[in-house]
């Protein structure tokens, strides 16, 4: 159980998938919750989580915008945030030059700008109190150039790097920073990112509950990072010694549209 059953955890992207499962982990460990997503399904998620016996507040906000993050921060009010689980993210498949630029920018604004702005606001409050935990959902996608997912993989590379840098900056401030780096996970990510007709979209995926449990445990233990699943650990080990050009070529074979049945 969490040491303080009234401690507040803020979980973004919590309407489904890994975010909802992270929120469940927090609730089972005694955290009250403020959950956020950019869709009305966040209210149904809140109803589900309340059955776990904790206080749950939910807001619908677009965290790709400064205004959306400010809306979330205003909802936090003067409550101390014990744990910030920055999980909100967006994907986008197909060739970069074929993508709508507004959609590509939304990926950057959600995955990078909204995430680091929220961490900047909440992290300063944690530093003032000299207490807090931050979990950032990165991805093993950040280890490889993502042909046909070029913008998405680049944003995850940013988050993976950012989390390690921030961890060492705040090491003496009572704050821990953990990077959760899953691989392909059974969520609606692939449908939303228009990747269902790719080999990547067709492969067997990890259970989001397993991913969340490992990420939550790593956060509570103050670990710097966790790669979920043995096969993902193997992939990251291989990626670390493979030339980027070969990684991009391999990713192309998995993410190119129309490859699902090849």
From TrEMBL:
It holds the Pfam family adh_short. The keyword Oxidoreductase applies. Keywords: Oxidoreductase. Gene3D superfamilies: NAD(P)-binding Rossmann-like Domain. One of its GO terms (molecular function) is oxidoreductase activity. GO terms for cellular component: membrane. Belongs to the short-chain dehydrogenases/reductases (SDR) family. This is Oxidoreductase. It comes from Rhodopila globiformis (Rhodopseudomonas globiformis).
């Amino acid at each position: 159980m969490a040491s303080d059953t009234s401690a507040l955890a803020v979980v973004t992207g919590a309407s489904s998938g890994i975010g909802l499962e992270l929120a469940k982990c927090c609730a089972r460990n005694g955290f009250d919750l403020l959950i956020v997503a950019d869709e009305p399904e966040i209210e149904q998620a809140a109803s589900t989580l309340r059955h776990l016996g904790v206080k749950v507040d939910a807001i619908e906000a677009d965290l790709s915008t400064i205004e959306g993050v400010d809306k979330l921060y205003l909802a936090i009010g003067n409550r101390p945030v014990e744990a910030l689980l920055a999980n909100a993210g967006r994907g986008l498949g197909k060739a970069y030059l074929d993508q709508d630029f507004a959609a590509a920018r939304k990926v950057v604004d959600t995955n990078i700008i909204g995430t680091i702005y929220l961490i900047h606001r909440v992290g300063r409050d944690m530093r003032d109190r000299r207490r807090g935990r931050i979990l950032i959902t990165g991805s093993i996608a950040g280890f490889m150039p993502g042909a046909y997912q070029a913008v998405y993989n680049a944003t995850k590379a940013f988050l993976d790097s950012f989390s390690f840098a921030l961890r060492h900056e705040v090491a003496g401030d009572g704050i821990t920073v953990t990077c959760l780096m899953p691989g392909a996970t059974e969520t609606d990510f692939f449908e939303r990112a228009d990747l269902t007709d790719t080999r990547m979209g067709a492969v067997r995926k990890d259970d989001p509950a397993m991913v969340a449990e490992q990420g939550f445990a790593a956060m509570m233990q103050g670990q710097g990072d966790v790669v979920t699943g043995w096969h993902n650990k193997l992939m990251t080990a291989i990626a670390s010694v493979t030339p980027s050009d070969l990684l991009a070529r391999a990713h192309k074979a998995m993410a190119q549209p129309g490859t699902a049945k090849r």
